[in-house]
């Protein structure tokens, strides 16, 4: 079978590489309008950093996995077409700052309608607001002229940084489709693809709307856990409780569970905020303001956590960071990814730049160009320097901020760092990654999140 995926990003690239790797019988072509991105997928320097991805791509690329900008041919030849393009939060017009921007999705639907010659199964892979399938379907059917289009929802639950492990061994695969004979047949076709490596009982099938809504709900529930524990972290700081101890104590209750209770500088990533905003927008649209407010609270708490961290840095540094060098270690929204979308580091750095701090930023995988773009600063800007390593960033600094939980930060020589810093040497561990007692023994004034 021929499979095509429109969109060669963080989701489309790894997911299609895994399908090709696991299903030698199928030919998978990933297309994108971005030539540079496709060139990168065809090179040794993939555009997405993800542990284990290089091996999977190398194993299949050129045999049954292809990356191309020839969108039309790939669509025309494929039986199954995944849509995995970006659906950012709208920045203009009705629903700005809340609704999902579906123009890229609509372009794909129109393109599929235009170039398809036979019947197609169209799969929504991007996270979409519930009932998007209806819009895609209407566009396709209005232009179908005797062809049949089945629309499936197959949301991706992989997390960045663990994408390959998540794809290889997913908790579940979800496929939603029309509950008609043609819809059920299309669902079965896609189920058969995943059954190539996923145990059958982990492949769930539902109607389209349940599948679309499950994706938003899963992300809202996950983000809600982080905001809940982050809310408690503020209370811990006021009461000498320790948030990691609290998280451990509640997480052992099997009804609560231990995962996703790591207090932090706030969640980031391309999904959580966007999806919750989307859920909030949908609730308002359907006349459910109380439900909208409930979920909006998760975002409000996350914004609070990011600003609270920056304020704490300023107040601890004698209420001024003006012209003080501050080392920022970590810029990605979590470890093991080069993705910075909605990273808490962006907001914390902006708050500190506002206070005229001189930031020296180091991240193991994020490029200088990306950091500058996120902070909207040029190379001439005197407040932002991008460093080659953690030692350069911390030289003569007044404070060190850990904003991403990269493993390599645990192995740094903190005595060496302390010796080259201004005194008192402050350290703010925004990920509760380091041993604060050891740091205090070296001489640091070290603080974590939610530790009084
Ligand atoms: C609760 C805690 O579970 C327990 O650990 C603590 O020691 C005391 O408070 P309890 O209030 O007795 O225990 O019952 P619980 O089973 O937690 O249920 C509380 C309420 O939530 C009930 O009204 C129950 O019907 C409701 N509930 C529970 C739901 O509506 N849905 C659920 O999934 C679970
Ligand atoms: C998330 C969902 O986990 C995934 O299922 C969905 O498909 C896409 O969105 P992702 O955004 O890649 O994945 O990363 P995730 O591991 O969920 O982390 C999101 C953010 O929450 C990160 O900034 C992370 O640092 C933060 N986080 C996570 C915490 O602060 N504490 C935690 O306990 C867990
Ligand atoms: P995600 O994290 O959802 O994968 P990305 O932004 O990483 O999001 O990837 C989405 C990709 O979709 C981008 O590479 C973008 O160029 C591509 N894309 C957007 N619109 C179209 C389109 N109409 N045709 C083909 N590719 C598209």
Features:
6-stranded parallel sheet, binds uridine-5'-diphosphate-xylopyranose, Rossmann fold, alpha/beta, 14 strands, binds adenosine-5'-diphosphate, 452 residues, 44% helix
Please provide a written account of the structure:
44% of the residues lie in helices and 13% in strands. By secondary structure, it is α/β, with parallel strands linked by helices. It folds into two domains: 2-206, NAD(P)-binding Rossmann-like Domain (Rossmann fold); 209-452, NAD(P)-binding Rossmann-like Domain (Rossmann fold), CATH 3.40.50.720. Strand 13, helix 17 and strand 14 (445-448) form a beta-alpha-beta unit. The longest helix has 32 residues, at 208-239. The model has no long low-confidence stretch (mean pLDDT 95). The structure holds uridine-5'-diphosphate-xylopyranose (2 copies) and adenosine-5'-diphosphate.
Mean pLDDT: 95
Helix and strand composition category: alpha/beta
CATH topological fold name of the largest domain: Rossmann fold
Tell me the fraction of residues in β-strands, as a range.
Answer: 5-15%
CATH superfamily of the largest domain: NAD(P)-binding Rossmann-like Domain
Count of DSSP strands: 14
What small molecules accompany the polymer chains? uridine-5'-diphosphate-xylopyranose, adenosine-5'-diphosphate
- Give the oligomer, counting copies of the same chain as homo and different chains as hetero: single chain
Placed side by side, the strands forming the largest sheet appear as 3-2-1-4-5-6
Tell me the number of helical segments per DSSP (H or I, 4 or more residues long): 17
